[in-house]
Amino acid sequence: MAARGAGAGTTAGTAAAGGPATSFQRKAAAGGSRLSALPGTRPSARHGQLLLSSGLPSLDAVLGGGLAVGTLLLIEEDKYAVYSNLLFKYFLAEGVVCGHDLFVASAMEPPDNILKKLPAPLLDDAHRNELREEATPAKSEDSQDSMKIAWRYENLPKMEASPTTSTKFGHYYDISKTMSPELLQSIKRHSFYLPEELSLEPKLKTWNMNCGYASLLHSIQRVICQEGFDGSHPQKKQKNILRIGIQSMGSLLWGDDICSSDTPEDIHSLTKFLYVLRGLLRKSLSACIITVPSHLIQNKAIMERVTNLSDMVVGLESFIGSERETNPLYKDYHGLLHVHQIPRLNSLICDVSDTKDLAFRLKRKQFTIERLHLPPDLSDTVSRSSKQDLAESAKLLSSGCGAMAIGKKHLDF
Amino acid sequence: MLGELNELLGASPQRPGTGKFTLLRDTRTDGSFLVHHFLSFYLKAGCKVCFVALLQSFSHYNIVAQKLGVSLTAARERGQLVFLEGLKSCLDLLFGEKEPSGDPSPLQFLSGSTSNLKALFDFVRTSLTPAEGDSWQGPVLLVDDLSVLLSLGASPVAVLDFIHYCRVVVCSQLQGNIVVLVHSGEDGADEENELLGTALGHHSDLILWAEGLATGFCKDIHGEIKIIKRLSLQSTEQDVVQVYQYKIQEKNVTFFARGLSAAVL
């Protein structure tokens, strides 16, 4: 399970983080201890930056502990943007639960609608009821008695096998329920809805960049300056983090044609935008998530440049509509997750996870990212048929020729 | 600086060399450890360094340089290091008020008013021209990531012109060195980038090409580096090519011959 096994590491980290916690902070307030008291963050043991949770503890583990403050997470959308929208919502929901400020930008739907559909966090009392239902009586008895057989392990700390909200970093969410409006009222949110913004302001032609991107940059910069995220109001008592979420950058709705034509008119708008955005992120206490429909971008050079200019790049490949949906090898999963880039912050090395085969699945209430495990081969001809035969017969099965598929398997005697 | 790399290159901080153009290339991997190495190497050698850092912030380079034994803040204070932080100065250009002093920003080409990189070249020239009372060894220009200039709208020809002008001033006139990094992605689909890399490769005295392993990710071997020394640009002698594999650690990078990684032996 996605247990917070790094619990020991966290306590050691917070104990040792007396010194400067963020090195990205230009006008750092005196006393790193005040910075580490920011809600919903913890310092990283690797590079000393503050880490934020992305809302999905299994994704945090893949990203090396979380999203560092001042960095950009780029998500390459899956085919119908089903799962990337989920990750987007998880990120924003985590911001609400931790009390961070939110900035939501979209060209597709009004940001208020997005915020109304965030998943509800799994809180203590609701979860304890569930635990009581699921736990067998035998289990609870064992945990109370002293261990008779495994007595050497008695004094070891118990691993958190199930989620609790006693951890301040990383929460679990229930997708089947939406977040209550009371929780949303408690945080400060800013929104940018492209059709509204373009009608309000005249088109500013900045840097030969797309107008939508230019006005979004100005809007973000305004929020960062006025709310003091870049340390420009030292008298503000409580510092906070700004979480920025931008949906579907590069799509036609933003006025950019890199997704819709082979030879786009202006291939530099998106990259210029990302460059300036990263500059803004680096000098303020904020983090940003952007989803890009990269499967629509024909010009591969653009995605290379976009990857080079982002900090973390994660690609989602869902099985919807592809032949893998019915392939028995992948029957437990809904898609694959590719980690294209992890940044090396303040160091020559980075925390790259060893497993490169990651897959995700959407259970009834939760979305998890796991190591891809092939299911055991339990067919009749397990010794003789290879995986390739199985996949072939699966293809035939899916196209409706059931009898023929069985015949192929039992051809040899 | 990375001691093992110095041994492989036959370089030492006592003799930093003059008039050399070094090209760093990386494909399918992150070659920034080479940039950190050359930065700390030339600072230790006592050269005056102009660092055009387009990709990361000052504090990132500072922290890594401290691990390699050099302090960038101290170097900047005593005038040995001139640091252009691309991320910060593009913000000043976009959001700042018009400067009354009339000094154009080095990244002027971003605003689209000019298509060449003359402002950047002027910045480099003024920072590396020796002033009165300077006792540094020799000027060095270090550019972290020319590919970023392409992403920001400069044409490959403009970037090549910029490098050419810099070579004339820094390498020929001032007898200094230049080190630039060109980063390629997974597939090499960026044609302008490949063009830039190949064109610069023809003019370089030394090429360090870091590549990810062709067979994929490995925990113990982070990549392969090809060192191409051009003996002479005039004669037709073959270049000396050496290939090593490397593993990056916290404060050091170890190099070993192919197939002789510590994990395998």
Describe it.
The complex is a heterodimer of chains A (413) and B (265). Chain A has helices at residues 7-16, 32-35, 57-62, 82-98, 111-116, 124-134, 137-144, 181-185, 194-200, 211-226, 269-282, 300-309, 387-398, 402-409, and strands at residues 41-43, 50-52, 67-68, 72-76, 101-106, 119-121, 173-178, 189-193, 242-246, 286-292, 312-318, 335-341, 358-362, 367-371. Chain A is of the alpha/beta class. Chain A has one domain: Rossmann fold (3-Layer(aba) Sandwich), CATH 3.40.50. Chain B has a single domain, classed as P-loop containing nucleotide triphosphate hydrolases (Rossmann fold, 3-Layer(aba) Sandwich), CATH 3.40.50.300. Chain B has nine helices and nine strands. Chain B has a nine-stranded mixed β-sheet with strand order 3-2-4-5-1-6-7-8-9, with helices on both faces. In chain B, strand 8 (240-248) and strand 9 (253-256) form a beta hairpin. The radius of gyration of chain B is 18 Å and the shape is globular. Chain B starts with a helix and ends in a 9-residue tail after the last strand. The model of chain B has no long low-confidence stretch (mean pLDDT 88). Chain A binds chain B through residues 23-24, 47-48, 206-208, 217-218, 221, 268, 271-272, 275-276, 278-280, 282-283, 300-301, 303-305, 307-309, 344-349, 352, 354, 356, and chain B through 30, 32-33, 36, 57, 59-60, 62-64, 67, 86-88, 90-91, 94-95, 110-112, 145, 147-148, 150-153, 183-187, 189-193, 216-217, 219, 248-251, 253. Chain A: It is found in: Cytoplasm; Nucleus. Chain A: This is Elongator complex protein 4. Chain A: Keywords: Cytoplasm, Nucleus, tRNA processing.
